[in-house]
Design brief:
Elements: H1 3-18, H2 28-32, H3 37-41, H4 51-70, H5 93-115, H6 134-159
Helix pairs in contact: 1-5, 1-6, 4-5, 4-6
Length: about 160
């Protein structure tokens, strides 16, 4: 497989995990489709993450992978704390839409970086990563999307 084809395949895997049709079922963006802000706040059990938190968490990790691939220390994520950014103190439908759009924006930005990624750097360790290569970060973030899409689907099913 040629180097360009490897990048194209990684973009395809990323897209299938996020918002394209795939054999495995519902991707992350599909799992969020139709979720209201009130539904996004409901916890499946006390102390467990809700859909809104999962949405911000997945957006954050797309940002982290993009930052590692670009090696750009100037990139900043709009939420905090890291890993599990806080849901707004006074949530509304508009703030829910904003955070879903943040996830979509982070996906688009990451996708653009991957589409232009130099194939020769795929097997290099990721910036600020002692263990994982750039390639592992890329397919790992697609797996991360699917993992949390499954969680969201389960949370929705438990409410029925």
């Amino acid at each position: 497989m040629g180097a360009d084809r490897r990048i194209a395949l990684l973009v395809e895997v990323l897209d299938q995990a996020f918002d394209h049709r795939a054999w495995h079922g519902t991707p992350l963006a599909g799992a969020l489709r139709g979720v209201t802000w009130r539904e996004a706040l409901k916890r499946p059990h006390p102390g467990r993450h809700n859909i809104w938190e999962l949405t911000l968490h997945t957006a954050y990790w797309k940002y982290v992978v993009r930052r590692r691939l670009t090696r750009d220390p100037a990139l900043e994520f709009p939420g905090s704390p890291a890993n599990w950014p806080a849901v707004p103190a006074h949530p509304t439908a508009a703030l829910w839409r904003r955070d879903v759009l943040l996830l979509k924006r982070e996906h688009r930005l990451l996708r653009d970086v991957i589409a232009r990624f130099p194939p020769g750097r795929l097997h290099v360790k990721g910036w600020h990563s002692r263990r994982w290569t750039n390639l592992q970060h890329i397919y790992g973030i697609a797996s991360h999307d699917l993992y949390h899409a499954g969680q969201i689907q389960l949370i929705k099913a438990l409410r029925r």
